[in-house]
Amino acid sequence: MGPLKGALSLVLYSVATVVTFTLLLPLALLKFLVPPWRAAIGRRADALASAWIDFSNFHQRQITGTELQIEGDLSSLSREQWYLLICNHQSWVDILILIRLFNGRIPYVKFFFKKQLLWVPLFGLALWVLDFPMMRRHSRTQLKRNPGLREQDMEQTRRACQVYRYNPVTVVTFPEGTRFRPAKHKAQGEVYRHLLRPHAGGMAFSLSAMEGRLRKMVDVTINYPDGVPSFWDYSCGRVRRVQLRVVQRTLTEDLLGDYQHDREFRMHFQSWVNDIWREKDAWLDSMREREQGRES
Hints:
alpha/beta; Glycerol-3-phosphate (1)-acyltransferase; globular
């Protein structure tokens, strides 16, 4: 039954995606022809994307049967608030779990994407009409040759985020920068038992680009007690349960600053992020010890 579930899930994802993209096309044309309507068009595009998520969540629940075990209060979340959402990263399934958990509770999620993705057929157009913030991140070699490019990166991202002054949004970032892999973990020196080192600069970059609009943070830690799954595992219903810890935090004024040039602020911000990561690591440790106790 597993492969049959997976195939059915993929068909439903595909149908929902084609229908949603077809409905997004007129909005993309209007956005191109009438730039002053950008904010209003963005709200309608977000509503279509949320409908896609609602449908995807429905068939996920019906087909996969995955149980979400949640630790934390979600009742105070609001669709009228601006949020920064951070999470540890283990699998592409993380994204499906996050949108399943938070759709309808917080504003539609936005991921920063690289400029190159704008040229991917269909996908790039969807990112553009949905106002996902685009960034152009130069390589270390380019920045070393021309440090001024870093300021260009920041200014471009600030401009991309201007539309969010009017529409509440959830900006999502995975501070580890990549999915957890044992080889990567070992190469970093295994500072944390279950996590990669967080890149504090990316979070500081996001907060600065939003110019103080982000005042709340949703801190999510995901644990897969039966092993980290692939997308196919999840689609086939092989993931029985997912454990999540959700902590809401206030983003205070002292977390806004010049991460690149202000050494004192950079040290303060890194310390704050590292404290959060130690807390996440301790929770993962306790959950995995609990699971080992049940098995023994």
